[in-house]
UniProtKB/TrEMBL annotation, chain A:
UniProt name for this protein: Pyrroloquinoline quinone biosynthesis protein D
Pfam families for this protein: PqqD
GO biological process: pyrroloquinoline quinone biosynthetic process
GO molecular function, one term: quinone binding
Pathway(s): Cofactor biosynthesis; pyrroloquinoline quinone biosynthesis
UniProt KW RNA-binding keyword: no
InterPro entries listed in its UniProt record: PQQD (IPR008792), PqqD_bac (IPR022479), PqqD_sf (IPR041881)
Keyword annotations of the record: PQQ biosynthesis
Keyword Isomerase in annotation: no
Subunit structure: Monomer. Interacts with PqqE.
TrEMBL record, chain B:
UniProt organism field: Methylobacter tundripaludum
This protein's encoding gene: pqqE
UniProt xrefs under Pfam families: Radical_SAM, SPASM
A molecular function (GO) term: S-adenosyl-L-methionine binding
CDD domains, per the entry: Radical_SAM, SPASM_PqqE
Identification of the protein by name: PqqA peptide cyclase
Length: 90, 383
């Protein structure tokens, strides 16, 4: 599964992304399961709000963290997210 | 265990104890179905009292504060509790991800919408078989068509839909049709739960345990299907531990992750633990969840490795499977400290083969005894 660069990306309505105080981590919750996220994965998923495509997410995060060259890492993570059903496109 | 709810356990007491992540709220033992593999205790009729709404809200609040995040509303049939929407709303306000584990019996479109508004995250509907005749026979209630209607409504209202089918000798031959049914109903998740032999399933084991050949064939079909529907439907396959060489890492280790609260308020490290001798399980009416989790004798009973006997205590796999299931060790060997007899290293491992042989003989017998259905009459007769 690959990310279509022209389409916007949104977090799946069948999952929930939330901050867990006890674990000091963002997590993805779904039926009978939970995935603990590191900070960068959580930052990427929070950008998946249905208004931005891949290039926009990359540029927003590069600006936010005052860095460049994030395209490959972000694309790779979003492909994993798409495969796991955490995000959707269309 | 401390008698006052003001006790504040020291940090030292908590060292190495992880907080609960999963809370199973068994709201009631009442159920309109009579499944002969029910995981409720055989003597459930002894426990008639039920926690009230305020008790449950307090339990949810306390466990959430400790870090519990996955919440299962179960039973019996949780829909028989009139306060379910109120509890769901309380759970949502606290930030739980809440799962309704239901037979679907009594679930209307109005109720599905009401629970969605209250903040319920998903509904798991159990179906007993792929045909009306067998479903209704196993459930002991006419329910097949309604369950299918409920599955459609769950999807319609935007919930992830989890279909759960408990697998045993009476329905294992329907595996291809069960998979097709799940696909047709648009299930997002399909849980194929091979029967675990506790409670009523233990009493009915001769009639429920399939042969190894049946298991292998069904598993092959399920695995092939899993690849076919990858990306569309997730299949959880609960393995039948009687045909494994090593035991399951039951509950991810005693008192590490899972907390079950029974209808009468008894706190359990797993839903079968109240059947273990001398457990004297604490009640949420007497203690806070924090006291129960960190300080109670029950929750500390099988934590760590100190309690183990040989062959577990010197086994290099003990950190992987924790010696297997304590309830199964007790049910099958009479000793809750023993290795789970499923393990081929267990001196009691022969009881597994004996159980398999006994079930096979029962299947071939001319006059196979009937299934014992889970109902109040049978509960009183057997306890």
């Amino acid at each position: 599964m690959t990310i279509n660069p022209d389409q916007t990306i949104k977090f799946s309505p069948l999952h929930r992304l939330q901050w867990e105080e006890a674990q000091q981590k963002d997590v993805i919750l779904y039926p009978e399961g939970m995935v603990e996220l590191n900070q960068s994965s959580a930052e990427i998923l929070k950008c998946c709000d249905g208004t931005r495509n891949l290039a926009q997410i990359v540029s927003d995060l590069e600006r936010k963290f005052a860095t460049t060259g994030l395209t490959n890492d972000i694309t790779a993570f979003l492909e994993v997210a798409l495969k796991n059903g955490w995000i959707q496109q269309n | 265990m401390a008698g006052s709810n003001k006790t504040n356990p020291t940090t030292a007491l908590r060292t190495g104890i992880t907080p609960p992540r999963w809370l199973l709220a068994e709201l009631t033992y009442a159920c309109p179905l009579q499944c002969p593999y029910c995981a409720n205790p055989i003597d459930y009729t002894k426990y008639q009292s039920e926690l009230d709404t305020e008790d449950w809200k307090r339990v949810l609040t306390q466990a959430r504060k400790m870090g519990a995040v996955q919440l299962g509303f179960s039973g019996g049939e949780p829909l028989t509790r009139k306060d379910l929407p109120e509890l769901v709303k309380h759970a949502r306000d606290l930030g739980y991800y809440s799962n309704l584990i239901t037979s679907g019996y009594g679930l209307t479109e109005e109720k599905i919408a009401q629970l969605k508004d209250a903040g319920l995250d998903h509904i798991q509907v159990s179906i007993q078989a792929s045909t009306q005749e067998l479903n209704d026979h196993i459930a002991g209630t006419e329910s097949f068509q309604h369950k299918k209607d409920v599955a459609h409504l769950v999807k319609k209202h935007g919930y992830p839909m989890v279909l759960c089918v408990v697998i045993h000798r009476e329905n294992i031959h329907q595996m291809p049709q069960i998979l097709e049914m799940a696909e047709e109903l648009g299930a997002d998740y399909l849980e194929l739960a091979n029967t675990q032999y506790y409670g009523w399933a233990h009493a009915n084991r001769d009639l429920l345990l399939p042969t190894k050949e049946q298991f292998e064939q069904a598993e092959q079909i399920a695995q092939a299907f899993k690849e076919k529907v990858a990306g569309k439907m997730k299949i959880y396959y609960v393995v039948p531990d009687f045909y494994e060489d090593r035991p399951k890492a039951c509950m991810n280790g005693w008192g590490t992750t899972f907390l079950t609260i029974a209808p009468d308020g008894v706190a359990l490290p797993c839903h079968s633990a109240r059947e273990l001798p001398g457990m004297d399980c604490p009640n949420v009416k007497d203690y806070s969840i924090e006291q129960i989790w960190y300080e109670s004798l029950t929750f500390n009973f099988f934590r760590g490795f100190e309690w183990m006997k040989e062959p577990c205590s010197s086994c290099d796999e003990k950190e992987k499977d924790f010696g297997g299931c304590r309830c199964q060790a007790y049910l099958l060997s009479g000793d809750m400290y023993a290795a789970d007899p499923v393990c081929s290293k267990s001196p009691n491992h022969h009881v597994i083969q004996e159980a398999i042989d006994s079930a096979k003989a029962s299947a071939l017998a001319d006059n196979e005894k009937p299934l014992i259905f889970r109902n109040s009459k049978n509960s009183r007769l057997l306890s």
